Amino acid sequence: GAVVSQHPSRVICKSGTSVKIECRSLDFQATTMFWYRQFPKQSLMLMATSNEGSKATYEQGVEKDKFLINHASLTLSTLTVTSAHPEDSSFYICSAPGQGGNIQYFGAGTRLSVL
Amino acid sequence: ELKVEQNPLFLSMQEGKNYTIYCNYSTTSDRLYWYRQDPGKSLESLFVLLSNGAVKQEGRLMASLDTKARLSTLHITAAVHDLSATYFCAVDGDSNYQLIWGAGTKLIIKP
To answer: Are A106 and B44 in contact (CB < 8 Å)?
Structure first.
């Protein structure tokens, strides 16, 4: 079945540094990918919709300059958390819709810890 | 505002028992999705319900959809410990492929 690869699975970084998270669709093309953030014991919060070849669509309250999204190819979207701070610590998950959009394939998630 | 409400949010039960998780939604979506998440892990698709009256079963889990009532249920039969996880339901949002998520139901099944 379709697979979405997300890397890295875990990042620990110092406050002020930037962290890049990659999301790849391994055996299918994804013109759209989604980036979620999940706090402990909470549901998924959609941060933005990543669109191949165009600007990402951010949800209300999500800072575009803070969370940079690039979707340069049909199989790769990246999320860069710029100047990370402890409050950015969270579990970040990407997903891509499969053919027909009936199913979303999720990456394994990235646990970001900012010290 | 589009809303998806799950209940209960937390459920602790004994092995061998039956129980049902409910998912109410406010949209006119004809499709509903159930996902499973294990602690510290990402999400795994369980069921995609595509029309009114749809019923799908996989092992001890059965999901159904009533689009008129805007209600989906996830029924657990003779629960086993391995089913312990958080279960999310979701419906289609306004934008292409976007999903609106329920809060999740954390299920703990005690041996």
So the answer is: yes
pLDDT in tens, B22-46: 999 998 877 899 999 998 888 999 9
- Give me the residue label for tokens 């053919």: A99
Which residues does chain B have within 8 Å of residue A93's beta carbon, measured at their own beta carbons? 42-43
Chosen for mutation from B98, B100, B106, B107 (greatest number of chain A CBs closer than 10 Å) is: B98
Q: What is the pLDDT of residues A49-93, one digit of tens each?
A: 999 988 999 999 999 999 999 998 999 999 999 999 999 999 999
User: Cβ contacts of residue B104 below 8 Å, gap of 6+?
Assistant: A42, A43, B6, B9, B37, B86, B87, B88
**A44/B88 Cβ within 8 A:** yes
CB A63 within 8 A of CB A80: no
CA atoms within 13 A on the CB side of A85: 2
